[in-house]
Amino acid sequence: MTFSNTTNVIYFSPTHGSEKIAKAVASGVGMSRRKYTDLTCDFDDSEISIENELAIISVPVYAGRVAPIALQRLSRLRADNCPAILLCTYGNRDYEDALVELFDFVTQIGFKPIAAGAFVAEHSYSRPNMGIAEGRPDSSDLALAKKFGANCLKKLNEYNCFAPFEIKGNRPYRVVGPSTPMAPISNDNCHGCGTCIDACPTNAIKLADSGDKVVTDINKCIKCCACVKICPNNARIFETPYTAMLHTNCATLREPEIFM
């Protein structure tokens, strides 16, 4: 297969876990030219054509499936002659059918998967003193991701690199029920600096009419908690009983899983 010596690192990553893993894999691949397609806060709906490049596609897992907003953003892509490395990150509970769903989705828009990996990243609901995969991906995760990238490059140079390979997951995919609208709120530490507005992947946050606070549209919020984690004043709070449940039930740290 002939293609340019270019890696296109494509990700949707509100709290940067998927981004970190994708960039570590790209480092391991080590191609001379690298491009980044960050779909996290890209609200454009125009088509993105990708030709003759190795794609690294990285997304977060929500309830055992690919985050719906990530699929929406990925739907803009159209690939021609593009092998792909598929990645998902999950908060130490399970990724269930996310990798299989991602495989099917990107195949439909023209990519040719050659490998896939599931990596642990700190859960969106993780909080100080109630961590859920706190600090992941860590240095060990990133080192393994880099090694995985190097192995993917070796596979890409093999004549049968597009041979079918097994990925853990099920078809039909796990059924996910409707999500209850909820959103982080602001406490008295909020001064309307706007940092959270810039970080929100769905434009759910805006300045209040007073100009010194922010307000959130719960119908747009996807509970990624990017605003909570990025706020410089600890002014964003998201209270959910799932934090304690996940902290208790998902305490045993899981390790990355690779499929080639």
What does this structure look like?
The chain is α/β, with parallel strands linked by helices and 260 residues long. Helices cover 26% and strands 24% of the residues. Strands 1, 2, 4, 5, 7, 8 and 13 form a seven-stranded mixed β-sheet that branches. A hairpin with a 2-residue loop joins strand 4 and strand 5. The protein is globular.
Unreliable stretches (pLDDT < 50, length at least 5) are none
Largest β sheet strand count, sense and barrel closure: 7 strands, mixed
What integer is the average pLDDT? 96
Judged by helices, strands and strand pairing, the structural class is alpha/beta
| N-to-C SSE string, H for helix and E for strand | EHEEEEHEEHEHEHEEHEHE
How much strand content do the residues show? 15-25%
* Approximate shape: globular
Alpha-carbon Rg, integer:
19 Å
User: What is the helix tally?
Assistant: 7
